[in-house]
Design brief:
The chain is of the alpha+beta class and 215 residues long. It is 24% helix and 26% strand. The chain contains 6 helices and 12 strands. The strands form 3 sheets. A 7-stranded mixed β-barrel has the order 1-7-6-10-9-8-12. It has a two-stranded antiparallel sheet with strand order 2-3. A hairpin with a 3-residue loop joins strand 8 (108-111) and strand 9 (115-122). The longest helix has 11 residues, at 70-80. It is globular, with a radius of gyration of 16 Å.
Length: 215
């Protein structure tokens, strides 16, 4: 199926931040060479050496990896009129020619020779992201554009490096994309019943959606 590639693999260390815990790894830096990726424990990143500052809302099995497309970063560069290097949104994988927002929940990506990931949820903007970006009404702006990027779980551990191919190995076909889920939980609640039927959605988000629709 469709092929894209990894433009950069990004890892962040702990830094002081206006966040609930006072520290964040959101400002990630591109890495030279391969990085090991595995199934993380609670509140941990799937990427070796990557720091998670808020374990209640980030990391863990359902949010082991965060991917954002270079094409969407380029859009934001134009909107914000500032340079946005790969990793600046806190993404572990900056991709090229991968429709991240259009990926279906439960879609599986084969990355490089070994790694297999499964799309699990959209990213929702938080105060830490807003503080890091330092843009007026950033949460509102990010939500309005609905280009959230995707969280993924690790199905088969492996390593990844810049230049690795990204292949869509399986697409469920239900049509519930990352972008649709994001819009459903933020601005278009009439879409929630579609989302509630998708078992592969991150478990906490799925429980919230089903509670909202009364199922």
């Amino acid at each position: 199926m469709s092929l894209g590639r990894v433009l950069s693999v990004n890892v962040g260390g702990a830094r002081p931040m206006l966040a609930r815990t006072g520290r964040s790894g959101i400002g990630k830096q591109p890495q030279v060479g391969s990085v090991a990726v595995g199934v993380p424990g609670y509140g941990k990143s799937g990427f070796a050496g990557d720091f998670i500052g808020d374990p209640e809302d980030h990391g863990g099995v359902d949010r082991a990896v965060y991917a954002y497309s270079r094409e969407d970063l380029d859009f934001w560069q134009g909107e914000l009129e500032r340079d946005l290097p790969s990793g600046v949104f806190g993404e572990n994988l900056t991709t090229v020619a991968v429709d991240v927002t259009g990926a279906e929940i439960g879609e599986r990506w084969r990355v490089g020779a070994e790694l297999v990931l499964e799309v699990s949820a959209p990213r929702t903007p938080c105060r830490t992201f807003a503080a890091w970006m330092d843009e007026k009404r950033w949460i509102h702006t990010f939500t309005r554009r609905a280009l959230p990027g995707a969280y993924l779980r690790v199905l088969v551990p492996g390593s990844v490096r810049a230049g690795d191919a990204v292949e869509v190995a399986h697409r469920p076909g239900h049509g519930v994309t990352v972008g649709l889920v994001f819009r459903a939980i933020t601005t278009e609640p009439e879409l929630l019943p579609q989302v509630a039927a998708v078992d592969a959605l991150a478990s906490d988000m799925l429980a919230t959606v089903r509670r909202r629709v009364g199922s």
